[in-house]
Amino acid sequence: MFLFKNLSLKLKNLRVLIPKRDLIILFIMWFLLGYFFIFYPILTKNIDYEIKDKKIKVKSQFLKDNFKTDILLVSIDSETLSETEHKWPWPQEHWAKIINDIKEKGKPKAIILDIYFQESKTEKPPESFIKAVKSQSNTGLVAIYEENETTFGKQILISPPIKEIDEVAAFTGISQQPIDDDGKIRTIILHDKRINYKHIAIELLNNCKIDIPNLSVFSDIQTPVALLDFPVSYRGLNQISINDLKNDDRNYEFLKDRIVIIGATASILHDYHQTSIGLISGPEIICNTVEALGSSFLQLLDDSISNRIIHYLAGVLIVMLFYSDLFKQSSKQVLIIWLMLPVFLFFYSYFPKAHPPIELTWLGYTATAALFVLMIRIIELADIREQLTEASICSDFQKGLFPEKGLTDESGISCYGTCIPYQNAGGDYYDFFKLKNGNIFYILCDVSGHGISASMITTVVKSLVVIETTNDNFNIDSLFNKINYAVLNLTKRKKMVTIVGGIINTKNYEVSISSAGHIPAILKHGNGFEEIPLPAHPLGVYSTERLKKAQTVIKLENFNKLFFYSDGIIEARDWNNQELGFDSFYNEINNLPEIANSEECIKILLNKLKEHTKGRDFVDDVSLLVVSCRCKDTKKETKESD
Length: 642
Known about the structure:
By secondary structure, this protein is an alpha+beta fold. Helix content is about 45%, strand content about 20%. It has 21 helices and 26 strands.
């Protein structure tokens, strides 16, 4: 499947659904975020530091050690300083004796002197010291390397060993670890072609003829920088002090065929550095670098703009993949990937030869996912606005289904109704009007559900009512059958309709009441009220042959009132979730003034309903239809008595 199928069509639809201004603002914000993340590394450096620290710890602790030569640190600790007859810095004659003893008694494979010997302007180094360094051609010296920021740019300062010693040493190199902004050392400079110096660990391994894996990767780079790993420190550093060697010659056996690093570990000499795994001395850093280089642990840094752009765009493409046709715009999947991506990227970061800026991939993913989520949200809001507009139009249309005003017949029959939809458009419908023969038709129905779908069914019912009542041989039973057929076939039993309706004979005041699953009507008379239950099937559930309907006929007397209503009245709730209920509603009907007309009855009942809910919205459509009777004869008798 082509991942971006119909992409141009989607973009066109996007321009239609999202206002042009909003779309431009979103893309500008997304572009600026990417621009600042890519071209301003300072914004992502703290995340990068955390990733490097975690990588260094995991890599140093768990990766297999492939370095075959043991490394030993011969330390100048506090005890050695206190028990040596010379004050620090020791004289070079004393160093000559230490080096000779180590070479003759210990026979190490190679030695690195991580000691800076101050050069005298008047005196040359003693011959004994020069010979000690020169003998066996396995002693290396560390040059002091500094890189400072000045107003003219970066300035490199190099302090090589004393010339006479440097000339006889087997190798010389630098040991430079740049300090990050948070004061930690995480990287090392492998070589600097500007000063033609390599790291002391590289020079040592070359002198010992030990292969350096991936040497060609960074040999052509002017100043390659690599992550500093600590395999020796995690495994346990082999260490012995000069004082231990001095006190017991048997300790020299530990030096045999090992790479020996001689350096200061006494805290008073201030050769300690804050690293990802804690405070570590300078000589211990050299030990770790030697083993990391020999084991192919080191990973270069590549913070070039091109590399940052590539990794940022990788995050962008991942989001586009999950919002393509392949994954059907699954926001849940995008969220899961967002949570899992850091773990995947962390393990991926070990494989490239250069440490990748994986934080940019995650940030690119996050920024683009946020853009997509915002666009989807804007589209959803546009859909909601459209739905609200449609609902408003539907509401206005549905209001046209109801009678504009009440009906008062010269016979004394009056009808009045009201409908308060739960949403803009509802599923309740009522109507009343005079037929050709002078009788009055009335109906009230309640469609299951709310909203536009329910209102569409009421439109169907209204249409059938209009069509059927124009027939000369109109009867309620035929109307109910056609409504049942229409609802059943249109909704496939997903909707049903309860209906109560009938015809009022304006001459003899007989009222036929037909019901299809609707709640009982109420007849109020002088002695109280009574229910008119007509159990039957709702429409839209059963076929016409199986449909059960109910019908009865009553006769209205003077001041009688008939109440037809929807269950939204009974289910009206207050803030304590207490429903009004049938008993309370019946009681309110019973308390209505006998002389109140249909409109007045509805106003009184609605006020009582609102008192019960205490301002809470109705939970269903509320409809009420009242038919009242004031017979002509009664009115005449009243006038004569006056």
